[in-house]
Amino acid sequence: PPCSGPTKTGARQNQSYKARRAPGRRRSKTKPAAMETQTSEAEKEMREWCVALPKVELHAHLNGSIRNSTLLELAKELGDKGVIVFEDVKGVIMKNDRSLPECVRLFDLFHTLTTDHDTVTRIAKEVVGDFAAENVVYLEIRTTPKNNEAKGITKRSYMNAVVKGLKSVEDVDVVINDEKLSCTPMSVLGGDTKRKKIYVRLLLSIDRHETTSAALDTVNLAMEMKDQGVIGIDLSGNPVVGEW
Ligand SMILES: CNc1ncnc2c1ncn2[C@@H]1O[C@H](COP(=O)(O)O)[C@@H](O)[C@H]1O
Questions:
Q1: Considering only CA atoms, which of 124, 130, 114, 110 is closest in space to residue 201?
Q2: pLDDT tens-place string over residues 118-160
Q3: Biased composition, Polar residues: where in the chain (predicted)?
């Protein structure tokens, strides 16, 4: 947040980062195996430092932030119902290093897995909990409100399910509407406080393949939900599809 200066926590973490990083930078006369151990120690410490640092996350797609374990669980359920072939999907979920077109295709699968209110609520809850666990103190989640007549879902009910998820996080204080946010000192946003606090804001995405009228529905919905943490809209989706 703009008004917040460096905190004791931030300064201490920065110092400890320097102290920890030093050994990894020293020239070593040891054998390669020992060097490898040293590097992986340094990487581990760097990772720990990165996790401990209070952070802001300004570009998280809700359906792009689902836990692998949840995706696998949902895929297994759909596999058992015969909607998908679990073994095929499993490999796709666990694959790393995807190209953008592969990611876009993967979202079609994710959307098959997550289209019901309870699942949307569940993933919203888990995603916020996961970011808080990594010491994200301010989080902007973007997601595409979707109509799905067959499942009785409207853009509004989809968003209500998301907000319900944010409100049902148990171990962390989730603030979704706080006008004083920009002046909240960093010291109360994260760090060493026993119970974590995370400020969450929502952006409603308009997928490029949507019609103008569907896009306007999303804009109006964003306006209606201003008091529920919605702070704007986003243009998303496959960049080579549609006219947006
Ligand atoms: C360079 N990366 C990207 N570029 C463009 N759009 C992206 C994206 N990564 C994700 N999305 C958008 O986010 C949707 C999934 O989350 P939600 O269902 O909305 O929560 C995808 O369908 C896509 O429209």
A1: 124
A2: 999 999 999 999 999 999 999 999 999 999 999 999 999 999 9
A3: 1-17
204 lines ligand 1 (CB under 6 A): no
CA 22, 28, 32, 34 torsion-angle sign: negative
Among 104, 112, 119, residue to substitute to test ligand 1 (most atoms within 8 Å of Cβ): 104
Locate 196 and state its tokens: 């974590």
The domains of the chain, with CATH numbers, are: 58-236 (3.20.20.140)
The secondary structure of residue 139, as a DSSP letter, is: E
Report pTM: 0.80
Residues in Cβ contact with 236 at an 8 Å cutoff, skipping those fewer than 6 apart: 61, 142, 144, 205, 206, 207, 208
- Ligand 1 atom 22, closest CA: 107
